[in-house]
Write a structure and sequence with these properties.
Shape: globular
Number of helices: 10
Largest sheet: 5 strands, mixed
Distance between the termini: 10 Å
Helix content: 25-40%
CATH superfamily of the largest domain: Mannitol-specific EII, Chain A
CATH class of the largest domain: Alpha Beta
Order of helices and strands: HHHEEEEEHHHEHEHHEHE
Radius of gyration: 20 Å
Structural class: alpha+beta
């Protein structure tokens, strides 16, 4: 799915402005309402969904970039557009700097894989040297689109000299899965492996000593998912902090755990997009 084929140029703006994050989200919902695909969906629902997504963890990527996005029930096609804010907006970004480039994605609720693919495409595109400067200097929405179209032909090259770490994320709560995966993609993780796993409770319950806990230890609370991902070492702390913004302080609650390990050697990739 190429970005140049799905960006709605009629929704793109080069003069986006807002004094607060709340005002920015309200303005985004109003702009999106001009799409023909939202004729039967009220702007209030769009605002509700993008606000809910922000409450899970800011989509302010950092380095002047924000990627507000949400899945919306009843939406049949993707709505994708780009907004440039010359003065910038305080958007609760990871680096606490103003966001100037907003890449907005509104997705049909059931099209999860395609949604992740678009997020990955923006992540790759915005990492290309010089593109952010060109986008911010675009004088018309048409030039804005032409810049995206031009760079869409560039293949993203992985810096093989960059030191990586193995991050292992264990989640017992299903609701954290998609926000965490989205966050990893937003931070340049090109792919990961997800393992269906179980806590030790389902096995301990077979030991006579713990027989009285049979029902409790074999319920859904003992099922988990383990994400294995290679992350840039230089972004280790940022990614840790970002995931905890989704899950909450992991030192104060159960149900999730993050670990990182040094890698002495690796070949191949877990990237699938």
């Amino acid at each position: 799915m190429e970005l140049k084929n799905i960006i709605d140029t009629k929704l793109c703006r080069i003069d986006f402005s807002a004094k607060t994050k709340k005002a920015a989200l309200e303005r985004i919902a109003i702009i999106a309402s001009n799409s023909k695909f939202l004729e039967t969906i009220k702007p209030a629902l769009v605002l509700e969904k993008i606000t809910e997504r922000e409450e899970m963890g800011s989509t302010g990527f950092g380095d002047g970039i924000a990627i507000p996005h949400a899945r919306i029930s009843g939406l049949k096609e993707f709505i994708v557009f780009i907004l440039i804010s010359p003065k910038g907006v305080e958007f609760d970004t990871l680096d606490q700097r103003k966001a100037h480039i907003f890449c907005v994605i509104l997705a049909p609720e059931e099209m999860v894989n395609e949604h992740l693919e678009i997020l990955a495409s923006f992540s790759r595109l915005l990492s290309i040297s010089g593109i952010k400067r060109e986008l911010r200097s675009a004088r018309t929405s048409e030039i804005l689109y032409e810049t995206i179209a031009k760079y869409s032909y560039n293949r993203f090259k992985v810096d093989t000299t960059q030191k990586l770490k193995l991050m292992i994320i264990i989640l017992y709560y299903e609701e954290f899965m998609y926000p965490v995966l989205e966050y990893l993609i937003e931070n340049g993780v090109k792919g990961s492996t997800i393992i269906e796993s179980e806590g030790m409770g389902s096995y301990i319950s077979s030991i006579p000593l713990f027989a009285s806990f049979l029902g409790f230890m074999r319920n859904d609370k003992n099922r988990s998912k383990t994400i294995l991902a290679l992350i840039p070492e230089v972004r280790e702390n940022i990614i840790f902090e970002g995931i905890e913004r989704i899950t909450g302080d992991l030192d104060k609650k159960d149900g999730a755990m993050i670990m990182t390990f040094n890698i002495s050697r690796h070949k191949g990739t877990m990237g699938i997009m």
